């Protein structure tokens, strides 16, 4: 049984692509909410410890919101949330350390690429049973998307010098739009549609 499944529901209706896409685009809120929570609890990302813990906190919020957007069940949503948290905790620690906790545009672009790749790698393990070889491209694609997120946030003048764990709302909207392909390529069964039992199984 694939890990990326949902609990059966009483209805077999499959959500329309428009509703699926809308839910995913709304999930951009997980970035600023997670970043704000980490800033309030941990403070700026200026050390290895703050990067790890801040990344974990941000990833927990982001993963939970994305799990909601993908209509994952409780069990699968928990795995997705934890994978996202661990991925961002590791990715931010490596990325921020690699640039000496700098906040210049090139620094944040590299930090974003590493963070995105780490989150993508953690999530790819759950995506593999459902989309197979496309899951292999997810870390690379997410690295590019998160690089774009930090670029947009920096260019529009957000105070990136405050050393947030993740980009702001403008970058989050950008990343949500760029990654909206994910809920569209996932098989519809992930959204809680239970396959009908065969006549033999009902005997």
Walk me through the topology:
Elements: H1 17-26, H2 30-41, H3 48-69, H4 74-98, H5 105-131, H6 134-155, H7 169-178, H8 181-185
Helix pairs in contact: 2-3, 3-4, 4-5, 5-6, 6-7
Report the order of strands and helices: HHHHHHHH
**Overall residue-averaged pLDDT value:** 89
How large, in whole angstroms, is the Cα Rg?
18 Å
Give the helix tally.
Answer: 8
| Dominant shape | globular
Number of strands: 0
For the biggest sheet, the summary is: none
How many angstroms separate the termini?
A: 22 Å
Uncertain ranges:
6-12, 189-203
Structure write-up:
With 203 residues, this protein is mainly α. It is built from eight helices and no strands. Helix 2 packs antiparallel against helix 3, helix 4 (74-98) runs antiparallel to helix 5 and helix 5 runs antiparallel to helix 6. The two termini are 22 Å apart.
Features of this protein?
mainly alpha; disordered C terminus; 203 residues
């Amino acid at each position: 049984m694939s890990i990326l499944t949902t609990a059966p529901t009483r209805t077999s209706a499959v959500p329309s692509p428009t509703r699926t896409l809308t839910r995913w685009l709304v999930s951009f809120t997980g970035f600023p909410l997670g970043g704000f929570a980490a800033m309030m609890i941990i403070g700026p990302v200026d050390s290895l410890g703050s990067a790890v813990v801040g990344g974990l906190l941000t990833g927990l919020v982001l993963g939970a919101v994305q799990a909601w957007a993908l209509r994952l069940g409780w069990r699968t949503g928990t795995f997705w949330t934890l994978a996202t948290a661990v991925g961002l905790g590791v990715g931010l620690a490596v990325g921020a350390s690699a640039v000496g906790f700098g906040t210049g545009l090139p620094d944040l672009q590299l930090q974003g690429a590493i963070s995105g790749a780490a989150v993508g790698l953690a999530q790819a393990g759950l995506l593999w049973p459902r989309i197979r070889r496309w899951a292999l491209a997810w870390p690379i694609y997410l690295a590019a998307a998160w690089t774009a997120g930090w670029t947009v946030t920096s260019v529009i003048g957000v105070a990136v010098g405050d050393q947030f764990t993740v980009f702001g709302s403008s970058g989050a909207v950008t990343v949500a739009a760029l990654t909206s392909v994910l809920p569209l390529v996932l098989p519809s069964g992930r959204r809680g549609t239970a396959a009908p039992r065969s006549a033999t199984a009902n005997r």
